[in-house]
UniProtKB/TrEMBL annotation:
GO terms for molecular function: protein prenyltransferase activity. Belongs to the protein prenyltransferase subunit alpha family. The gene is PTAR1. It comes from Dromaius novaehollandiae. Residues 269-291 are annotated as: Disordered. Residues 271-281 have a biased composition (Polar residues). This is Protein prenyltransferase alpha subunit repeat containing 1. Keywords: Prenyltransferase, Repeat, Transferase.
Length: 333
């Protein structure tokens, strides 16, 4: 395969890894969804990480830049590549998966990086309201932010795996994160970010009626908001990382937690028998939990009533009705 030839050139020192990344960027302008190109790109980035000797980026005014600065610049360049590829091919799952991988392995899922990404992708999703992959990425960002403030076992395990896979980043993480993490995480107003995301959903649903993607995203955001308000353990809080062997972001055989999430979100397939018999132990525990964020559900019901009373779009009415069914089932009312 051609990719194997490029790998041999890089390993032998004949080809500069950054030049190979540039060639891959050009290839993605013509084949933005090419899985082989994205897989190879991750392999090249892993070589740079493992060597702990990122070549100086050959850009004007950047000679002699510090390793940390070069890594940050490399992250930003990868974000730009992903954005361009996502714009060239609708619902470009491979591009958004790569973007998540970069955050996990280079950006280290710091609060600053996550918030920057949440801000920088807001306009993009607002102009691509049918792109499931773009909104799924924002869900990943929000779930990761929750994981920074309310870590559970999945978060801790994932962070440990990322560190073990990238030992060159460990020393940098210890020196850098210890100083900034406390200030970052204390200053982050997570409820406000979730509230703003729901407001974004409201604006987009009102402006672009009949888009199922927006309603699916609203369900996920409300689920996160409800979880945060009630301190309920978050199911499937962080997606598995994509490694150089190109594992997908979701397993081909979902875990019980993932299956429960699919059941909770799949309202169109909800019937009376499943609502009575399809509860797992986790579902029962969620039902028993005291509903502390009563204002949240009340506002959602008001929003649904407003849509149903004012909108004449058939699809919009169907999605609003399905969302109401999901709320009733999820909240156990």
């Amino acid at each position: 395969m051609a990719e194997q030839g490029w790998k041999e050139l890089i390993l032998s020192g004949t080809l500069n890894p950054l030049k190979d990344l540039h060639l891959g960027k050009l290839a993605l302008t013509k084949f933005p969804k090419s899985p082989e190109t994205w897989i190879h790109r991750r392999w090249v980035l892993q070589q740079l990480i493992q060597e702990n000797s990122l070549p100086t980026l050959v850009t004007k005014g950047n000679l002699g830049a510090a390793p940390v600065e070069r890594i940050h610049r490399l992250v930003q360049e990868e974000m730009d590549v992903c954005s361009e590829a996502a714009g060239r091919y609708p619902s470009n799952y491979n591009a958004w998966s790569h973007r998540i991988w970069v955050l996990q392995h280079l950006g280290k899922l710091t609060v600053k990086v996550l918030l920057d990404e949440l801000s920088s992708t807001k306009y993009w999703v607002s102009t691509h309201v049918s792109d499931h992959s773009g909104f799924h990425y924002r869900q990943f960002l929000l779930k990761s932010l929750i994981g920074r403030t309310m870590p559970d076992n999945n978060i801790v395990v994932q962070k440990q795996v990322v560190t073990e896979q990238n030992p060159s980043l460990q020393k940098e993480e210890e020196s850098e994160a210890a100083e900034a993490a406390c200030a970052e995480e204390q200053s982050m107003d997570l409820p406000r970010h979730l509230k703003e995301e729901l407001e974004l959903c409201t604006d987009l649903i009102d402006t672009y009626p009949g888009h199922e993607t927006l309603w699916c995203h609203r369900r996920r955001v409300f689920y996160l908001q409800h979880h945060l308000s009630n301190k309920i353990p978050l199911l499937n809080v962080v997606l598995p990382s994509v490694d150089s062997s190109d594992e997908t972001l979701t397993s081909s055989q979902p875990s019980p937690a993932t299956s429960h999430m699919a059941q909770a979100m799949d309202v169109d397939g909800l019937n009376e028998s499943s609502s009575k018999q399809g509860y797992t132990q986790e579902t029962k525990r969620l039902k028993r939990a005291p509903v502390q964020d009563t204002l949240g559900p009340e506002m959602e019901y008001r929003f649904i009533d407003k849509v149903l009373s004012t909108c004449r779009d058939v699809e919009q009415v169907r999605f609003a009705t399905a969302y109401r069914k999901w709320l009733v089932t999820f909240l156990g009312q």
